[in-house]
Amino acid sequence: MRASAFITCITLLVVTTPAAIVVVVASPAYMLVRPLEDENDYARVLELSLLFYEAQRSGKLTSEAGRVAWRGDSALGDRGANGEDLTGGYYDAGDFVKFGFTMASTTTLLAWGAVSWPDAYAAVGQLDVIRETVKWATDYFVKCHVSEFELYGQVGDFAIDHTFWGRPEELNTSRPAFKIDPEHPGSDLAGETAAALAAASLVFRTSEPSYSEKLLRHARELYNFANKYRGLYHEAIRGAAQYYESTDYGDELAWAAAWLYKASNESRYLEEAEHHYQHFHLRERPNEFFYNKKVAGVQVLLAQLTGTQEYQNAAHSFCNFSVRRQKRTRKGLLYIDKFGTLCHAANVAFVCLQAADYPDIGDPKEYREFARQQIHYILGGTGRSYVVGWGRNPPKQPHHAASSCPDRPAPCGWPEFDRNRPNPQVLYGALVSGPDEADRFHDKREDYVYTEVTLDYNAGFTGALAGLLQLQVKAAAVTSTPRAA
After folding, report:
1. What is the Rg, in whole angstroms, of the alpha carbon atoms belonging to the chain?
2. What is the pLDDT of residue 145?
């Protein structure tokens, strides 16, 4: 969407907080995106983060998907080995490969945030938007699950895809599809997809009960597939190893079983989650939480589901380490890895906000303040925003092919990659990889270590925004409630 675009039928929602009055521009189908300045305005950035996911959509775009004016239908020929329809889903990053593993991990986190903090989404008119964001992925996963023990986990070949720079609507490369099956298993991929579908079934339980049941049915089958046929998915889908290698699958098995228990309330899934937790030594304190390391999420989720001291202690240990002892930059950013620096910080903020909702796990005030600090850094608290199209001095050259293209019908190709100028299309809401451990950031398209954008970079970030916004909404409700005479 261009900043100059004017959209009609706008409604205003005013949310009163103890600190300020937040005016949110919203409507059922459209919103007006304007330059913003307040780095504490979680509501507006939450809207933009969901808008980023719309810019990443593949397949036949619905009429409601017209908020990103420079995007159109793409990859309508995506098919499986036997002609299965694999259209839809999301492009992973600035390229046009659809990686099932990270798409599923992203979906699980988005669903977890929506299930935990629906009041935040509802307060700013984004409840239907988050549901549609999740559904765009889950519809695709259902298509990819072509039989009980077959799941397509990737469409497009990274090496082939990277010979092309331009618009997804003009893709001219071959797009092979890759799957897992009993002879070529992928417990991590099937387990994470099961977790995503189980979590998403909770998102739709009230609004679309039949769809919720459908997702839960696929989640059960995929978990059974993951558990019965063990293996690492990148050994079956070789092209994924270089970019999204998975180092274990025990965390995905426990993660999937825990989500199935939360979605179904069937005790056998909790028993299996606890078995995986012990068998795969998931009690040890992790240092991170992201698509390849779910242990911290497993610990927090099991603590929420059971109230058992062992899981509470594990979640407490992780968040205490992250808040008090984990390495930080001079300006206060949690520093775990240069690739996805901000994603790592936002993910830890997200999972510790989840922990903070259960006081027995740790100190809610300390964890929430930590999350505020990390999100404050991302939104510009130390001088610049790292969210494209928002705040003070935001990134102008995200490593993203489609947004680097001028308006059609002007051509787009490798010359656009090389041009040292802002991307013509603003990729609103995208969280870039971020600065290095010295707080330095290079806003250059070709310097992807700093300017890469991906589905999973925005996942925990979106949830953390919702968690912080929910606190504001609750505080506003308390202050606005009349006292009894």
Report:
1. 21
2. 98
Residue 17 lies inside a defined structural domain of this protein: no
Torsion over CA of 183, 189, 190 and 193, rounded to 10 degrees?
-160
Task: Output the domain CATH number for residue 403.
Answer: 1.50.10.10
Is 125 in a helix, a strand, or coil? coil
The residue type found at 459 is: A
State yes or no: cis peptide before 422, omega within 30 of 0. no
Query: Rounded to whole angstroms, how far apart are CA atoms 22 and 16?
Result: 6
Amino acid at 24: V
DSSP-derived 3-state class of residue 154: strand
Show Cβ contacts of residue 340 under 8 Å, excluding neighbours closer than 6 positions. 290, 433, 434, 452, 454, 456, 457
Catalytic residue among 39, 47, 161, 452: 452
Distance CA 140, CA 83 (A): 15
pLDDT tens track for 33-78 = 333 345 569 999 999 999 999 999 999 997 654 689 999 999 999 9
pTM of the model: 0.91
Those residues whose C-beta lies under 8 Å from the C-beta of residue 403, and which sit 6 or more positions away, are 55, 70, 94, 423, 424, 425, 426, 427
Q: DSSP letter for 378, please.
A: I
- Torsion over CA of 354, 360, 361 and 363, rounded to 10 degrees? 80
Neighbours of 128 (CB within 10 A): 14
Q: Is residue 5 part of a domain?
A: no
Number of independent structural domains in the chain: 1
Residue from 111, 73, 82, 106 nearest 92 by CA: 106
Min mean pLDDT across 235-244, 352-361, 474-483 is at 474-483
Distance between CA 319 and CA 324 in Å, rounded? 8
Burial class (CB in 10 A: 0-12, 13-18, 19+), 446: exposed
Residue type, 149: F
d(CA 261, CA 256): 9
64 is catalytic: no
Q: What is the separation, in whole angstroms, between the first and last Cα of the chain?
A: 51
Which of 208, 363, 443, 447 is the catalytic position? 443
Residue 54 lies in a domain: yes
Is residue 12 one of the residues assigned to a domain? no
Q: Decide if 139 is catalytic.
A: no
**Strand locations in 21-94 (E):** 21-26
Q: What is the pLDDT of residues 211-237, one digit of tens each?
A: 999 999 999 999 999 999 999 999 999
Helices 364-376 and 341-356: crossing angle in degrees, nearest 10, is 150
Domain that holds residue 83: 45-479
